[in-house]
Amino acid sequence: MEPFSKCPVCGGQLMRREVEKLLRGGQDTAVLRVNADVCLHCGERLYSADDVRRFEDIRSKLESHDVRSFRRIGASYQAA
To answer: What is the spatial distance between Cα 60 and Cα 26, in angstroms, rounded to a whole number?
Structure first.
């Protein structure tokens, strides 16, 4: 990855970290763990182009309810 040596938002130091990413598509949500460069000052996350394409693919599957390859881990509810 490393296209930036500093955070493009605030200029802070970037650190490679494993992060949890929530993706929404329609009314469904997927959770995945990916590596990202995270700004130690403002928290901005920078993802690789491959990860961004993967996010788009997952969102598309969620929107079309094609979740056969996903593992169900619970249920979500909206509080009134």
So the answer is: 9
Q: What are the pLDDT digits (tens) for 2-57?
A: 578 999 999 999 999 999 999 999 888 999 999 999 999 999 999 999 999 999 99
Strands across the sheet with 28-39, in order? 14-25, 28-39, 45-46
Please write down the HEC assignment for all residues of 25-67: ECCEEEEEEEEEEEECCCCCEECCHHHHHHHHHHHHHHHCCCC
Other Cβ atoms within 10 Å of 37 Cβ, number: 20
**Is 70 a domain residue?**
no
Give the number of domains in the chain.
1
Rounded-to-integer distance, Cα 49 and Cα 55, Å: 10
